[in-house]
Amino acid sequence: MSEFNFTKASLDALPSPTKGWVYHRDLKVRGLYIGVGSTGKKTFLLYRKLKGKPERITIGPYPDLSIEKARGKASELNAAIANGSNPAEVKRGITRELTFSELFTQYIQYHAKVKKVTWKEDEQRYKQYLEKSLANKRISSIDRREISGIHSKITASGHPVVANRVLALISSVFGWALSQSYIESNPAKGIKRNKEQGRERFLQPDELPKFFQALNKEENLTVKDFILVSLLTGARRTNVLEMRWDQISLVRKEWHIKLTKNGTPHTVTLAPEIVAILENRKAIAKKSPYVFPGNGKTGHLAEPYKGWRRLLSRAGLSNLRIHDLRRTLGSWQAREGASLAIIGKSLNHKDPSTTAIYARLDLDPVRQSVNNATSAIMKAAGADNQNKRKQIRYSKYVIGSKRLSNEIPD
Which CATH class is domain 2-94? Predict the structure, then answer.
């Protein structure tokens, strides 16, 4: 056995033994080995001693699995071991009795929680759309037709974007299973997704009075304050739900979120109206560390949808989602002349193209520009009116304070 830093050149150059297998250890990731067989086959594996017992976990074949991906998978397994799990035992159990429910549980524990900030959304989509139909099925029995049927059913219910997200989740779960050598192909691969159009809904000026009148009638103060804070900070729903007092400085008027959906921290500036809400909540708060406490196991408000539906019903508004409150703040920033860079920073957009939507959401600047151009055209036409009386038909119109009333004959 030799030890060296794995590179493509070094692995390609490894000779095959005359019989059996020879193993080589990577110096970069703990426990990562590559085995070379007498037939020339090369396989990545993780070798660790757990509770004094040697365990070997197959990661995948080389070069089908790149060195970078093998290191990533080895790091995931090492993280699971550090958390007290034995991935080898898990894999043996899955090999014996693998249902989609069992696979999903392992996917969440060993992949999503390690790699994805939004793993809770995966759990929610699984429970809402997949648990009933797939949970107790062996993964070998789940084929492309069944997955396509789930996608089509959600699409037909009027939620094409959600259907795409659920399909992406199924594909991700089976992709992880493929990387673990639990399956040989991904049954979700190749299913056509729905075309998506970016959502541009936000509260319009004529809707705001009705919205606030309905909100003032909300009797649940926690729900009422949650909606106000969501609207006036533009923060994501999950971050507002999990808002903690130790993240907030009322003196500096700041709210520091350690980890957001895009994987970065974010400091939210708190307007005076938000500070007033938080000071009131602080005065009535008990011992909960959360700004919006709840009675569930999370300790904070979990799902404000009932209160949200009450609000929309009272306001007579439709096709408005909680996430549209975030877009509302950005659109009003654009209306007030804020640059896209400022809007992007305030909403913690990682991709500038995400912020670009606010350049087209508000029609008022467009309307003003069109009106200005129209006035200029009409002024030019009026100034040269005498030379074009036989060519242009004018009806009654107003140019500034001067009124022209001309009917030009053919």
Answer: alpha beta
- Are 265 and 255 in contact by the 8 Å Cβ rule? The answer is no
Please give the radius of gyration of the chain, using alpha carbons only, rounded to the nearest integer: 30
**Interatomic CA distance for residues 247 and 336, integer angstroms:** 29
pLDDT on residue 173 = 95
Cβ proximity of 264 and 249 under 8 Å: no
What are the tokens at 328? Answer: 């509302």
Domain boundaries defined on the chain = 2-94, 97-179, 208-361, 365-404
Q: How far apart are CA 79 and CA 323, in angstroms?
A: 33
Residues 6+ apart with CB under 8 A from 52: none
Judged by DSSP in three states, 23 sits in strand
Q: Which SS3 state, helix, strand or coil, does residue 87 take?
A: helix
Q: How far is CA 344 from CA 241, 264, 351, in A?
A: 22, 14, 8
Q: Please give the model's pTM, rounded to 2 decimal places.
A: 0.51
The two three-digit tokens of residue 321, written as one number: 């989602």
Q: 303-353: per-residue pLDDT in tens? A: 888 999 999 999 999 888 888 888 788 777 776 676 666 766 677 666 555
Instruction: Please report the pLDDT score of residue 233 as a whole number.
Output: 86
51 in the Ramachandran plot: left (φ > 0), alpha (ψ -120 to 50) or beta?
Answer: left
Pick the CATH number of 208-361 from 1.10.443.10, 2.170.270.10, 3.40.50.300, 2.60.120.260: 1.10.443.10
Chain Cα centroid distance, residue 217:
32
Considering all CA atoms of the chain, what is the largest pairwise distance in Å, rounded to the nearest integer?
103
Strand partners, 46: 32, 57
Whether pLDDT at 384 is above 50:
no
Query: Three-state SS for 243?
Result: coil
Rounded Cα–Cα distance for residues 378 and 382 (Å)? 6
Tokens of 271: 């307007």
Q: What's the Cα-to-Cα distance from 183 to each of 176, 213, 226, 349, rounded to whole Å?
A: 9, 56, 44, 37
Class of the CATH domain delimited by 97-179: mainly alpha
